[in-house]
Amino acid sequence: MKLADKHLRMADLANHPARTAKTYIAKSGQQRTVTAKAATRGITGFSAKHIYHLINEGKFPAPVKIGRASLWRLSKINSWLASHAQPSDDNANANAKEGV
Question: What whole-number distance in Å separates Cα of residue 86 and Cα of residue 62?
């Protein structure tokens, strides 16, 4: 039996800024409140706009469209992150000492 690959939404990948609570009066006279939302950091650390820019340039995995939803395979995102990982300071220092 093969397990299905997990999928991520843009909300999982991209950063989202904080939103402050706002109260306003609708035309009907009702008082409406928009709740506050804390800032979140996505897996990539990029904004949604930048992720779509990278997709258009072919530098980021394209989403799988299921209906109107855009989903990314977790395995492809992990592969992309691994290929774009910055070397740690220990590896950089070791390479500098070896003359690499």
Answer: 22
Q: Output the six-digit token pair for 89.
A: 């300071």
In 3D space, the residue among 67, 83, 60 whose CA is nearest the CA of residue 13 turns out to be 60
Q: In the structure encoding, which two tokens stand for residue 71, read together?
A: 């989903």
Give the integer Cα–Cα distance in Å for 64 and 24: 38
Q: 9 or 4: which carries more pLDDT confidence?
A: 9
Rg (alpha carbons) of the chain, rounded to whole number: 20
Question: 69 lies in which domain range?
Answer: 7-23+32-83
Q: Does residue 39 fall inside a structural domain?
A: yes
Q: Tokens for 59? A: 């530098």
Number of structural domains (the chain) is: 1
pLDDT greater than 60 at residue 11:
yes
- DSSP letter at 19 equals B
